[in-house]
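Subject: Glutamate ABC transporter substrate-binding protein

B.,
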Amino acid sequence: MKLRKVTAAAATALVLSLTATACGGDGDSDSADTGSGSGGGDKIKIGIKYDQPGLGLKEPDGSFSGFDVDVATYVAKELGYDAKQIEFVETKSADRENALARDDVQFIAATYSITPERQEKVDFAGPYLLAHQDLLVKADSDITEATDLNGKNLCSVTGSTSAQNVKNDFAPKANLKQVGGYSECIAGLQSGAVDAVTTDDSILAGFAAQEQYKGQFKLAGLKLSNENYGIGVKKGDTETVNKINAALEKMVSDKSWDKAVTDNFGPANYKNEPAPKIGDIVK
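Prediction pasted inline below.
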């Protein structure tokens, strides 16, 4: 086999190329800056939901939309990343704490309610939205209170505490139907198979705002619980928490927060709470 000479210049170029690759300079390496909180790296991985219209939704063309997506994009920009540097990672509810612990994502914006139990495992920036458990019913429904659900069919997803809370505290004679996802509940509400769907009002508003459901549903406007949505960060990463809090405050002050609410929930006539103050957890 014939060997070719490697010139000194070529050898130098090879060393420089390998050094750049080792530093993650190609933007595709797993060693790209995703967890230091310093910003300005090759990319940033952010956990969101893929299946919640109005909050976190992966569109058929591969793009992402929703209030959580808008908040996450704004925060990432303030951390030094433009939209092309963001990699949105689907983060299901049951895996959120693990995703942060494994450094799969730098932060999570995914209808992530701040609770004492979760605060033992992760740190939170925010809150950035105060939601409430509510009911979604047909536009012509006479259901106005949770007690009206006695003898009615109430839908929520398997494993959710929302429907059980209604049954335990307000309507013990409600017929509870649990399914795999909220889309199934919405389909049941549309067909008349169920009389109401319950979960956070922000999630319900996101579905109601979809074009295919326009004018068909309404929120009952109840406040059956307080859900303080925060941005989850790996436990102990105080630097990133502080930077995200500063970004959230700026988003509110420059009215980008209001625009995101209107853009994502407006068609559902969602009567949202004012933007919460950082650290103000409503119990």
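Residues 1-38 have pLDDT under 50 and may be disordered.

T.
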